[in-house]
Amino acid sequence: MDDHQQLDPEIAGHYAAVPEERRLGTWNLERIRTWELLGRYLPSPPAVVLDVGGAAGVYALPLAAQGYEVHLVDPLALHVGQALRASAGQPAAPLASATVGDARRLDRPDGGADAVLLLGPLYHLTDRGDRLGALAEARRVLRPGGILVAAAISRFASTLDGLLRGYLDEPAFEAIVEGDVRDGQHRNPTGRPEWFTTAYFHLPEELGREVTEAGLRPLAVLAVEGPAWMLPDIEQRLADPARRERVLAAIRRVETEPSLLGASSHLLAVATAARGSAAARRRPGGTTVTEANKDVVRRLVAEVLNGGNLEAIDELYAPELAGAARRWIAPFRASFPDVHMEIVELIAEGDTVVARFTCSATHLGPWLGQAPTGRRFERVDEVAIFRLHDARIVHAWSLEDTLGRLRQLGLA
Predict the structure, then answer these.
(1) pLDDT digits (tens, 9 = 90+) for 83-109
(2) Cα–Cα distance, 95 to 271 (Å, whole number)
(3) Hey, what domains does the chain have and what are their CATH numbers?
(4) pTM here?
(5) Are the CB atoms for 309 and 303 separated by under 8 Å?
(6) Is 239 helix (H, G, I), strand (E, B) or coil?
């Protein structure tokens, strides 16, 4: 399909002129934070990841190198060609596929992806119906409980960029910003590439509503850069390990604060493919009870422990256990708001699931009587045994390396 049949000619021309494959440098805050958030929410490899609007593979290629099965889709043949050439350069871990396609009409089977990335399509689908169509397509191709990660540009990004870089001194840019703030429709009649191209700029709450209306279950709307992108020396700070961690810790503390979301240049919506009835949840060929029980544990990790969606506790736990689960999960997430649990192994037999995890997080709130240290622990081992009935947890037992966690935090 011809590129210009899928993209507005102005958008296609912008990406033909701007080297997308080199857009995100080593110390680019958007890139660093996006990788951090992908690491927090993506399932473990070798999960199937569909990178829609993946451009030249800035995220797809490293994910393939990590062991994921990555299928890249982009509306520009130019980008797909660049991705294929780069994929050939990593023969031990190439992309599973790279094709020209449209986020609104994906040539992929129902329920075949463990995760879908939309790290660009929502920018350039300026019609709300088209954005909902792309989100609905992501829902279609995701397996039940699969993860969507979708990026958007903040409604106020051009205002803040204009203040930072002095663009607001130019009447043409002032006119662009007026339109952006009024209705989110970004238009750049000057053609100056640093002022971007035809796009839609979201309000933070609007992004969450669109995800919900498309039939997905929102886990979070997060600030990617937070206000830190406006620091004039941000790349120098990120190049220094100690200063980089201070910047990232500051962003994590406010990444979901509603009053600050609009100050971030980019937003990231994380959601799961909602589940229907037990019959609707069956995969092609039927899902066994043990596999369905494993999916409950996967959802507990993705939605509740990592995503902070405490409302899902009532769906995942039996009523007599839900209160107890909430009483330990809520304060733990308050102490470690960026917690990331990674499933290492799941073993199921009958009504029982045994799970082995690693846990990483930053100590940002009181825990075990200890004041916040601001330090991180990485990959602390945990084991849990769950017993389920009718796809709900009725018993849970766990053992974790608390001493290892305390040592990494400098508390033991």
Answers:
(1) 999 999 999 999 999 999 999 999 999
(2) 24
(3) 3-273 (3.40.50.150), 289-408 (3.10.450.50)
(4) 0.72
(5) yes
(6) helix
